[in-house]
Amino acid sequence: MASSPDVIVIGAGVLGLCTAAELGARGHAVTVIDPGGANASSVAAGMIAPALESLLDNLSPERAALLKRARDLWPAVAGAHDLKLHRDGADWRGPDPDSALARLHALGFGGRSVDGGLTTPDDWRIDVGPALTALARASGVTTVRGRVARLADEGRRWRVEAGDGRVWFSPTVVLATGAEPAIPGLPDPVAAIVSGVQPIRGQLTAVATAVPPRVIRAAGVYVAPGEGGVVIGATMEPGRRDLEPDAAESAHQVEAGLALLGGTGESGAVRVGIRGATADGLPLAGPAGAPGLHLALAPRRNGWLMGPLVGQVVADGIEGRAPVADAAALDPLRVA
Question: How far apart are CA 281 and CA 294, in angstroms?
Fold first, then answer.
């Protein structure tokens, strides 16, 4: 039997689930369709890191301020879903820490010098497994397993077909499909936007070792507290979609991460995910230029940071509300 929710969200990564939870909190009936299994959001360290992302990517003050505003939405989301938000800060290690600290301060972030680098209180972290589970169970949200094979525009509603023959109808569809190819049936302009999302392969490794008090980052590597130890990652390999772990790369990353810790550890599971990215590094969030179609895509490596902001922007677009100030920077039509 077909069902007809108010909104269908295709994809259960952090952007899709933050959008679904925001819509559910506003009283909408939302169905999230996802094939299950690991995705880029689950294969992540859960870093909510505007300060060190701004430092490491040499962002402008305006972009850094946007990331900070996105982070500031997290306490309300964590409170609404009974999630632990780790506000422990983060450490950076690298050359010329005095210049790095001055740059951080110029971008509006706090920080102080420590041996070999700096520490900032402005980067946070969340546990990804519990967060994804809680968002998927939010009020008004129903999550179903399935892979969408085709979309069809039927005028005032969209027909959403799964590969196993199940069908849903809704006036509103949100594409939160990560770096996946465009779904057949999308209007050509929307398919072109989705197809323009660049895949970026990322790999991280679980390591059993002493857990540091906060995330430690350096150029090309990070160490983040995780269950039973730490996770060390993560690569940024543009253009790759393969999910086979690279043992040599894992060994290299673990060596670099343990050097940051100044300790030893035992390598465990290697996880691989495919992120989506745009040319300017910001996600695509909001109306896609076709009636009833909205995007929540391509946050690069900042999916956990940007999730609540993307959810708010997409929900506002669906409801026809006046957009928040940051919505223009995320407008999908900027890349059309």
Answer: 19
158-162 and 148-153: which strand pairing?
Answer: antiparallel
Q: What per-residue confidence (pLDDT) applies to 234? A: 84
In a domain, 214, yes or no: yes
Which residue, of 259, 277, 295, is where some domain finishes? 277
| Domain housing 117 | 87-124+198-277
Asked if 72 and 143 touch (Cβ cutoff 8 Å), the reply is no
Q: Are residues 33 and 149 in the same domain?
A: yes
Is 207 within 8 Å of 258 (Cβ atoms)?
A: yes
Task: Give the C-alpha separation, 100 to 197, whole Å.
Answer: 31
Would you call 80 helix, strand, or coil by DSSP?
helix
User: What are the backbone angles phi and psi of residue 54, rounded to the nearest 5°?
Assistant: -65, -40
Q: How far, in Å, CA of 287 to CA of 223, rounded? A: 37
Note whether 184 and 225 are same-domain residues: no
| pTM (two decimals) | 0.96
> How many other CB atoms are found less than 10 A from the CB of residue 264?
10
Q: Helix or strand or coil: residue 122?
A: coil
Average pLDDT over residues 293-303: 97
| Nearest CA-CA partner of 129 in 215, 206, 38 | 38
Using CA atoms, how far apart are residues 185 and 204, in angstroms rounded to an integer?
35
Q: Which of 120, 107, 98 is nearest to 57 (CA)?
A: 107
